[in-house]
Amino acid sequence: MPNPSAPRQNGKQLAPEVRKRNFEEVAQIFTKEEAQAEANRCLHCKNARCQANCPVGVQIPDFIALLKDGKVGEAASKIMETSLLPAICGRVCPQEKHCEGNCVLKERFGSVNIGMLERYTADTARKEGLLKAPQTAKPTGKKVACIGSGPSSIAAAAELARAGHDVTVFEALHAFGGVLRYGIPSFRLPREVIDHEIETVKSMGVKFVTDVLVGATEKIADLLKDFDAVYVGSGAGLPTLTGIPGENAVGVYSANEFLTRINLMQAFKFPETDTPIQVGKHVVVLGGGNSAMDAARCAMRLGPDSVTIAYRRSVAEMPARAAEVEHAKEEGVQFEYLVTPKEVLADDKGRVTGLKCTRNQLGEPDARGRRRPVEIPGSEFVMPVDTIIVAIGQKPNPIIAKTTPELKTTERGVLVLDEEGKTTMPGVYAGGDIIRGGATVLLAMKDGIEAAKRINAYLEGK
Q1: Three-state SS string across 81-120, please?
Q2: What DSSP letter does each residue of 52-90 carry, written as one string?
Q3: Rounded to an integer, what distance in angstroms lies between the CA atom of residue 35 and that of residue 116?
Q4: pLDDT in tens, 247-273
Q5: How far apart are CA 128 and CA 125, in angstroms?
Q6: Are 179 and 151 in contact, with CB atoms under 8 Å apart?
């Protein structure tokens, strides 16, 4: 019988004093006993709200039931019926907003730890050789190109391969994974996890090609000469900057550049690797999202005296996952709330020396319901700082839109889709950050899966 009142299992973590000096994964995998105890808390609801609120439709009660019976391989296969990235999703998806946030046990006993159970299932099945590549349909003779190798394109490619199409993924960089690899640190998402889940997609017959910047080395119009359809999942890799005076000073990074140097180029291993990274004694990160937390926690591991996150609103409005904020605090990251940067100060050599700011108070809600920050007159102050990392958002790189006039974009630079999810160019579909301007891995995957269904329908009629 289920035991919902049993203590929720949260697993173990590396101690803050240990982990803030290395890039090893912080959250440790469940033991078999912890996984069994947590699986036994699930009520296996017939009308499961957890599953209904999973953007990719993972059959949560079913996989947990299999796991409880010790059928780890079958549980992994059940997850992979709708999601081919279980080890990734178990680590980085905001379960508190989706499945766990809608668990019937949430208020009384605490939600079932679905994320950790998904991760345990995927990791254990991988280590024990129990993972099976999903079967693919009979070849259709149709070819599809997927631009980008982030979560949206991977999800689309996998679903298209399931349908029997010949799929090729084109990546601009030298390694696959998109934002999973360049944006998320290895202490949250180990590189071998990304590699394995991409290998699963490759085993379905999907081809992956590096060093192809669509819009430069290849145009979409050229791809359509060789492919029957194109999926654009190239993400949002163009940083949003503050626009304040002095932002071009030496020592100011965008979060995109900083995290790419750390995560993709492994600059934290310099000079063992070719890419250097340098932070001074005092680092300030501007922003309050997950990228800000990742940048701050990476900076802390480089050994400065202090790392501070400066955010315009209060903690209640901070969009980062609560767990990531808590991890940052545990590792010694400081927080300055209700602060607006006004000017970057630099010495006569152009190097950052300080950040002039003002204090805020919260005003009326904006269009998204978050209270607006209102500057307090006379509250100016200067934060001594050597390095500033700007993590206030990103937008799509315009190269595809600029070289493909048939594709319409909004003033925010995202691609325009019709009610059926098609772009303004026949045979071209899109999803993920290039249509959202920045979202979660899970929503990017959802877009890829839904677009694959539309592409299937399009190819059937072609």
Answers
A1: CCCCCHHHHHHHCCHHHCCHHHCCCCCCCCCCCHHHHHHH
A2: HT-TT---HHHHHHHHHTT-HHHHHHHHHTT-S-HHHHH
A3: 8
A4: 999 999 999 999 999 999 999 999 999
A5: 5
A6: yes
Residues 338-360 have pLDDT tens digits of 999 999 999 999 999 999 999 99
Average pLDDT over the chain reads: 95
Say if CB 211 and CB 174 are below 8 A apart. yes
CA angle in degrees (0–180, nearest 5) for 280-285-287 = 175
**What mean pLDDT do residues 41-68 have?**
97
Q: Which two tokens stand for residue 409?
A: 């974009």
Question: Residue 146: which of 231, 215, 255, 238 has the closest Cα?
Answer: 231
Interacting residues of 258 by C-beta distance below 8 A, sequence separation 6+: 277, 295, 298, 299, 389
Spatial distance between the Cα atoms of 190 and 187, rounded to a whole number of angstroms: 6
Q: Hunting for tokens 């310099």 — which residue is that? A: 270
Distance, in Å, from the CA atom of 180 to the CA atom of 323, rounded to the nearest integer, reads: 18
Answer whether 429's CB lies under 8 Å from 455's CB: yes
CA distance 27 to 22: 13
CB 434 within 8 A of CB 415: yes
Residue 37: pLDDT over 90: yes
User: Does the pLDDT at position 64 exceed 90?
Assistant: yes
Note the Cα 431 to chain centre separation in Å: 14
User: How many Cα neighbours within 13 Å face the side chain of 34?
Assistant: 17
pLDDT tens for 197-221 read: 999 999 999 999 999 999 998 999 9
Q: What is the pTM of this model?
A: 0.94
- Long-range CB pairs of 129-134 (<8 Å, 24+ gap) are 130/72, 130/73, 130/76, 131/73, 131/76, 131/77, 131/80, 131/200, 132/73, 132/77, 133/200, 133/203, 133/204, 134/80, 134/81, 134/84, 134/158, 134/162, 134/204
**Best CA proximity match to 312, nearest among 254, 368, 371:** 371
- CB of 175 closer than 8 Å to CB of 181: yes
Backbone angles phi, psi at 356, to 5 degrees: -80, 130
Residue 439 banded pLDDT, cuts 50, 70, 90: confident
